[in-house]
Amino acid sequence: MKKIYFDYASTTPADPAVMQAMEPYFFEHFGNASSPHALGREAKKAVEDARQELAGFIAAHPEEVVFTSGATESNNQAIFGVARHLKEKGDHVIVSRIEHPSVYEPVESLQKEGFQVTYLDVDKTGLVNPDDVKKAVTDQTILIAVMHASNEIGTLQPVQAIGKIAREKNISFLVDAVQTVGHIPVDVNDLNCDLLSFSAHKFYGPKGVGALYIRKGTPLKSFLLGGDQERGRRAATQNVPGIVGLGKAIELCRQKMPEEMRIQAALRDRLIEEISARIKDVVLNGHAVNRLPNNVHFSFSSVQGEALLMSLDMEGIAASQGSACTSGALEPSRVLRAIGLSDSLAYGALRLTIGRWTKEEDIDYVSAKLPPIIERLRKI
Predict the structure, then answer these.
(1) How many CA atoms lie within 13 A of 61 on its CB side?
(2) What is the arithmetic mean of pLDDT over 66-90?
(3) pLDDT (tens digit per residue) in 205-227
(4) Between the CA of residue 375 and those of 15, 36, 217, 302, 314, what are the distances in Å?
(5) Which end of the chain is more exposed for a tag (fewer CB within 10 A), N or C?
């Protein structure tokens, strides 16, 4: 049976060149990057080379990059670190209603601790209005968190404008860039952010490694204690092979990204056109223009999403409804409710995301298989 992957937003396969770069650091150059001997120095150099590569990619200084286990840790470290460092200064946090759970749930945890939280509404395309951010700011506001692009519906947020507001008010600004780093240009100075999180496995690197950009001067308590790694900001033996893989993945994205953006946007638009033409009563979720080049998100009336995914899987098509981190939830997507979808349309959601190895014939295949599946499920 043909197998086609349309879930690149959930995770990407590691590029073979990434695996090749990592392999020596499991066996030949296996030293602890904190050890003073030759093997340790080799490992440390590899870590710092990756840090340099990554910093250049996002226009940061190397010392502003902290390696983590992934974006969930990075977001937790950013949110709890800022809030607990500045709790004597203020207790107010601003966050959009469509954030990933790794941002949303730490903020909810702060609220239970007594912090005040303003949840920003979005319009029907999933956009946050910067004017709403400005209105929400008080003299107690210490952190604003708005994602660069929605992991579910693909909408790109006006983070530059929001970051400008935060900078004018001297408020720390966190941008979850999990869906954008490696896929579209990300410049921390252009975004006006103080904190930026991402994971290697979203851009053809290994799982279990990511980073947090921390702008120099940003107040932040250390999240993990027990060692001096990462300049004392994140204690733990560094995942040298993973960090090397992240660095190589970024190097490849630097080379390939402009062409991949063009190709994937064309495939995305063709997929939208084909599905919209072949299936009645379908809704395209997210912004029509300001969206990721690889994200398509539909809602189908009178269809159960779980049955839809199972039916696609039986045809060899791997897809999702939205975030893999909430795939077991019984309630409709919080993001889809936030953009005003009915429960019926929210339950009938389908996210198709494309990537480095998606081909024209893959678009043809899913465009041919999906209409009869939708027709059959609607009859049921």
Answers:
(1) 7
(2) 96
(3) 999 999 999 999 998 988 788 88
(4) 37, 65, 57, 10, 16
(5) N
N- to C-terminal Cα distance for the chain? 25
The whole-model pTM stands at 0.94
Burial of residue 152 (number of CB atoms within 10 Å: 0-12, 13-18, 19+): buried
Q: From the centroid of its chain, how far is CA 352?
A: 15
The one-letter amino acid code at 328 reads G
The DSSP call for residue 95 is: E
> How many domains are contained in the chain?
2
Query: What is the residue range of 205's domain?
Result: 16-252
**Residue 325 annotated to the active site:** yes
**What element of type H or E holds 85?**
helix 71-85
Among residues 107, 118, 103, 173, the alpha carbon closest in space to that of 323 is found at 103
- Summarize pLDDT for 318-375 with one digit per residue, the tens: 999 965 555 555 678 999 999 999 999 999 999 999 999 999 999 999 999 999 999 9
- Could you say which of 56, 265, 325, 326 is catalytic? 325
Residues 221 and 263 in one domain: no
